């Protein structure tokens, strides 16, 4: 086997191993951040649970703040990497839907799926943000990003002609922003025992009744 052929053969295998290592590190970080909390989890704990060295944690993902950011981003995207909001599959489907009612239904379904993945990680971030500067910055960044995305969603709903005329886009965005929050999911699903399907149906019904003409 020539050296060039060998390199072409080995490259995919190295990429697969790197991806598997990254996944193991993130899975370990998620388990420990959720169970112990971010401040009480050391990188060495994550490395031990993932079965790798501390240096491998750093090289495959990064420092603790980077680990938490990656967990938030991958929970949002539903993929093994961060995906900008406009490129996510559900956003594409929402924007392609012809009516506001269809957009709302699709978005409520997407939020329900996201919160299944995101809620435990996001609560760990919220708690860590109280005392950790990096986590506080990430918390603010995510909150501000959500607010901007909700303005885009409001404008998309407005373009259908189905929204109430007495509501501004900012008001529409704020209603959706507050009720699609992880905290709202936790209150109803974790605290009050709603099923995810009940949560999805409630979001759809609530937004439809509140926002549409």
TrEMBL record:
Record keywords, A-Z: DNA-binding, Transcription, Transcription regulation
GO MF terms, alphabetically ordered: DNA-binding transcription factor activity; transcription cis-regulatory region binding
InterPro entries, A to Z: Homeodomain-like_sf, HTH-type_TetR-like_transc_reg, HTH_TetR, Tet_transcr_reg_TetR-rel_C_sf
Top-level taxon in the UniProt lineage: Bacteria
Ranges where the HTH tetR-type domain occurs: 19-79
Transmembrane regions listed in the UniProt entry: none
DNA-binding annotation, residue ranges on this chain: 42-61
Signal peptide: none
PANTHER family: HTH-TYPE TRANSCRIPTIONAL REGULATOR BETI (PTHR30055:SF234), HTH-TYPE TRANSCRIPTIONAL REGULATOR RUTR (PTHR30055)
Full protein name: TetR/AcrR family transcriptional regulator
Naturally occurring in which organism (per UniProt): Umezawaea endophytica
């Amino acid at each position: 086997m020539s050296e060039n052929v060998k390199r072409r053969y080995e490259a995919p295998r190295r990429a697969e191993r790197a991806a598997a290592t990254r996944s193991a590190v993130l899975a370990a970080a998620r388990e420990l951040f959720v169970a112990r909390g971010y401040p009480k989890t050391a990188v060495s704990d994550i490395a031990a649970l993932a079965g790798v060295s501390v240096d491998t944690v750093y090289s495959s993902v990064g420092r603790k703040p980077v680990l938490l950011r990656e967990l938030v981003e991958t929970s949002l995207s539903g993929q093994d990497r961060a995906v900008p909001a406009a490129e996510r599959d559900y956003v594409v489907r929402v924007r392609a839907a012809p009516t506001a009612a269809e957009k709302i239904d699709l978005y409520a379904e997407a939020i329900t799926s996201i919160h299944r993945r995101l809620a435990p990680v996001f609560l760990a971030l919220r708690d860590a943000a109280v005392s950790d500067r990096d986590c506080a910055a990430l918390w603010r960044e995510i909150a501000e990003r959500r607010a901007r995305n909700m303005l885009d969603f409001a404008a998309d709903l407005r373009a259908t002609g189905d929204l109430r005329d007495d509501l501004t886009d900012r008001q529409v965005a704020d209603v959706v922003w507050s009720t699609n929050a992880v905290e709202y999911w936790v209150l109803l699903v974790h605290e009050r025992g709603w099923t995810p399907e009940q949560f999805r149906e409630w979001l759809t019904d609530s937004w439809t009744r509140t926002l549409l003409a």
